Amino acid sequence: MHLPTRLLPAITLTAISAALMVGVTAARAQDQPPAFHVLFVDNGASSRPPGNAQHGSYTFAPTHFAVVQGQQIVFDNPATARWPHSVESLVWTGQSNVKSITPGALFDSSPTPDLVINQGDSWTLDTSMLEPGQYAFYCYIHPWMVGSFSLQAAGS
Ligand SMILES: [Cu+2]
Fold it and tell me: Does this model's pTM top 0.90?
C-alpha cells in the first residue's frame, strides 16, 4: 500500500484489522478436518429394550468410526426421530474379571435431564480435550444404543 499513513482514517485501519482476523480464522478452519456427523436412529420405534418383540432399530449411524484429535463430532437427532437421545462416554474400571462401567466420566451431552438432545437438535463433542485412543459411548435413555470411535493423533 502506497498511501501515507496519515491519509488512512482510523476506521480503515479497523477494517484492515478485521479483514486480517477473518483471514486467520479462515486459515484455522482449513487446517481442521470437517466436522464428523453421527445420526441418532430410532426409526420411530417404541422404547422397548432388545428382546422385546416391539424393539426398534435403535442405533448410532455410523456406529463405529474414526476421527482425528481436534475434529468435532456432531451428533444429530433428526426432527423425524421419535425420542430425545444422549451421548455419554463409557469407561471401564475395576479388576480384570470384576469390571464396572462408569458413564459420562469423559464426556456427557446430558448431565441433567433438561439437556437431552431433542428431536431436531445436535450436540457437538470437541475431541481436542481427549487423548488419542479408543472411546465407547452410549445413550443413557436407551442404554442399548452403543457406539465407539477411534481418535487418531493429528498429523499421524
Ligand atoms: Cu437414545
Answer: no
